[in-house]
Amino acid sequence: MGCREQGGRSDLVRVVVVDGLLVPDPRARAAGRGAWLHPDPVCLDLAERRRALPRALRVPGPLDTRAVRDEIERRAARPAPSELTTVHPRSGAEQDMSTR
């Protein structure tokens, strides 16, 4: 939305308005109109600058994005699956650290 690039559902964060507040919908199951963002602060910044979130969600005025920004930062702090592999010291084979 913010960067106008497409992505897979698993690569994006869905946001919805609940009681007038913009909140993340990590399970993508909340009722009502939702908008999708990349889990990148730059994408959220662009959406705010373009005022895209109120338009996409069809609500008046600016929205408080603190809860969404916290979710995006939490996702950014999590290591990517590619960062969870290491090389076994003896065999040189890669091991997936996420299964340990």
Automatic annotation (TrEMBL):
Region annotation Disordered: residue ranges?
72-100
Task: Locate the compositionally biased regions of type Basic and acidic residues.
Answer: 91-100
Q: What top-level branch of life does the organism fall under?
A: Bacteria
SUPFAM superfamilies xrefs:
YlxR-like
Q: Which residues form the YlxR domain?
A: 1-73
InterPro entries the UniProt entry points to? YlxR (IPR037465), YlxR-like_sf (IPR035931), YlxR_dom (IPR007393)
Q: Name the Gene3D superfamilies on file.
A: YlxR-like (3.30.1230.10)
Q: What is this protein called?
A: YlxR family protein
Instruction: Record the organism.
Output: Longivirga aurantiaca
